[in-house]
């Protein structure tokens, strides 16, 4: 029978004390990087697996983080959350946590899910996505002192809880400057209905950039729900106007793909830029704004481990990350 691998076995292999191995497993921030790497190599070589039940009894913690899976909608922009979840799971695993996924059709059902999950699994924390104005989910968790971080800003007050977000206004500003540099002045915007925090933010980047260039954006934008068909419809409306735009910036790749269909039916010279840099955008040659999703996931885990006491608390419990414009054939 193979010998059981214990913390003591790992310690001998790495040439460190058992306490150091325990620190690497439970409080890695207190161990020097060189030592932590040596211990991790010994853990991997020996195939050591921590006893999660014993760890939970010792620390009083489940080492579980829960996050909701959003509906896929048209299957395009759902890939954005998929990439974020992959990065979150990978980063959380390195920090000694596991990610539990759940679904909910709306905020009320999601809050009900919080109550059930906390009772059944004694979760350590939540990661919330899709923040909105007057978000009832964050209010519920805050009232019960349940640790959480959001991927998305609290649009009412950006100081009320830890969050990580991507600067959407900066992304659409980059897109608009690109089109201005190509000589366009009448640059249209296809966005989401007013009141969406993310949508309003992305629209502001376009509007402020045009105004700074001396261009009046009046009548150059349209709002609609997200989707390819919706994007095509409102883009046609813009292009049929007496003074149509000569280029388009869109709040998502779904809207941009719809706009591309409208553009090709009207004038193939009209450039289109999307947002999210989805795999579909890359496949069709759509210029798009890329979000640093892996970096966002890493920062979310850093903020949570600080909140849970595994690492030093972050001095700035909010992080606004800069996107980048990926140039392709459409602009």
From TrEMBL:
Source organism superkingdom: Bacteria
InterPro entries, per database record: HTH_LacI (IPR000843), LacI/GalR-like_sensor (IPR046335), Lambda_DNA-bd_dom_sf (IPR010982), Peripla_BP_I (IPR028082)
Any one GO MF annotation of this record: transcription cis-regulatory region binding
CDD domains attached to this UniProt entry: HTH_LacI (cd01392), PBP1_AglR_RafR-like (cd06292)
PROSITE patterns xref list: HTH_LACI_2 (PS50932)
Domain called HTH lacI-type: residue spans: 5-59
Protein name (Swiss-Prot/TrEMBL): DNA-binding transcriptional regulator, LacI/PurR family
Family matches, as SMART domains: HTH_LACI (SM00354)
Organism this protein belongs to: Micromonospora pallida
Taxonomic path: Bacteria, Bacillati, Actinomycetota, Actinomycetes, Micromonosporales
